[in-house]
Amino acid sequence: MWAKNTEIAVLEAITSDEAKAAGVALPTDVNVQCKSTLCNITAIYRDDGAAAEAATILAMDISGALPQTQRRTIYRPDGSVELQVYAMKK
Questions:
Q1: Whole-prediction pTM value?
Q2: Strand pairing class (81-88; 68-75)
Q3: Which of 24, 25, 30, 57 meets the CB 3.0–4.6 Å disulfide criterion with 50?
Q4: Cα torsion through 18, 7, 34, 65, rounded to 10
């Protein structure tokens, strides 16, 4: 139950009003998979700036449930950016 509820919360954080108000672009694709204590979050953004802004907002929004995060940025041939975030609960 924790995994499914956390997946929903993470998806809501990615598209939150706070992110929209900050002018953060929505991802063109997003995938969230949570298991017992870890979530793997992958989102595709149009560019590096959008991905960096989104990563910051996401980390703040999920810090209560998932306080430990690591992120990786992958630059794709089409110019878009894949943001990978691994988030764990304490």
A1: 0.89
A2: antiparallel
A3: 25
A4: 50
* Annotation: CATH topology of 2-88: Gyrase A; domain 2 (3.30.1360)
Task: Give the domain ranges of the chain.
Answer: 2-88
Strand partners, 40: 33, 86
Residues in the chain: 90
Q: Hunting for tokens 């794709």 — which residue is that?
A: 76
Q: What is the pLDDT of residues 2-45, one digit of tens each?
A: 999 999 999 999 988 877 787 888 999 999 999 999 999 999 99
- The H or E element that residue 41 is part of is strand 38-45
Asked if 38 and 86 touch (Cβ cutoff 8 Å), the reply is: yes
